User: Fold Diaminopimelate decarboxylase from Natronocalculus amylovorans.
Amino acid sequence: MNTELVASSGKNPEARRLSEWTRPELLALSETYGSPLYVMDLDRVAENCQRLLAAFPAADIRYAVKAHTGRAVLETVREAGLDAECASAGEVLRSTEAGFDGDRIHYTAVNPPAEDLDYVVDVWVDNPELTVTVGSADTLDRLSERGFDGRVCLRVNPGVGAGHHKKVQTGAAAKFGVPIERAADVARAAAARFEFVGIHAHAGSGISGDDLSNHRELVRRMGELARKIADAGIALEYVDVGGGFGVPYVEDEPPLDLNAVAAATRKALGTVETPTGDAVQLAIEPGRYVVADAGVLLTRVNTVKQARDTLVAGTDAGMTTLLRPAMYDAYHPIENISRDGTVTPVTVAGPICETADVLCEDRPVATPERGDIFAIGIAGAYGYEMASTYNSRPRPAEVVHSDGEYRLGRRAEQLSELTTLETDSSGRAVQTLTGNITADKAHRSDQ
Ligand SMILES: Cc1ncc(COP(=O)(O)O)c(C=O)c1O
Ligand SMILES: N[C@@H](CCCC[NH3+])C(=O)O
Assistant:
């Protein structure tokens, strides 16, 4: 591992570990709100924002909303002073509803559906400082057709990516951005029709000490492009080098040394100025770093069985609650918070009828009994956001914590809500036959 840009291991305020959550509090929450249950610590979200602001003091910092869109999280991030980077019309809607002014909203259009552009241009009419980042020259035409002539940033494909899994390595993936070789020409054309404010690239998600050299190479290429654009007489406001800063998931993994990452980023970018000699801002857009270690997922064990070669704990959370293990083979720390004592290798498997619905294999945890609560750590980023209703399983509730108080941030979906979008053969909304699960039923512990 490249240890140059990671902090020394051991207890470190830069990474909140699962073991630092208070077990009796988590157990009480699972009794009150049922399971599965996401818990988000807003105080930790605010701390993470402060650490980013301290490490990148002169940069524009945009929170990548896709990592966690909960209203309370967005409000916390807004109050901390970060902007919002939105990947869709829905994220723009959520950000405006959470109080972000238009000048703090950056919409990154990825193959944008017409409805997204229609919506964002409508929002722009009342918020002319909103910025649209485009990854293809024809998106510029589609914006013009809608009467948009506002702030535009060009997403560049720098040809170098990074990230914790090949499915999240973005910087060289064909679908994202204009190839860097053509970017200066597209920028020139865009500057003739729009207020051209920036260039943008994103290496990928979950960058660790191992692949920081790729992040640096991306930043170096972006610095070079920015100077070329300045030479063409175009005044940029910023160079956005994306997000992707990783956090430790494995218990003894050291956190990134954010100050060292910031220094390396600045060095790789070099000096970038407008044609008249003004400084061009560095911008970053972290998502995971802001929310990952602020979240825990609680799940109840409903089945314990000795399989042929492993002990299986069946839980009420699975791949529809937390997709990352099934999709990326991602590791999340897991503890049995209902008991200590003898530790056994356990395979934790969810209730979904898919072989991939396994949260971990042969993980040493305190030997489970039916009714125990497992806590799954570092679940605040891309956890709830990637939840689905596959297998017709309602999405879970989420509780938020701030200053010693817990409250419901999002209620659980109910069985009766699963069919609300459907119509019958005469076009009328289908009658829902199931009643809501009562709070009592949903919350009882299944012993
Ligand atoms: C354009 C863009 N910006 C920012 C992010 C945030 O990434 P992360 O959550 O890894 O910081 C992503 C996600 O990978 C992204 O696609
Ligand atoms: N969903 C991914 C991160 C990808 C971010 C989207 N560009 C993860 O959970 O690791």
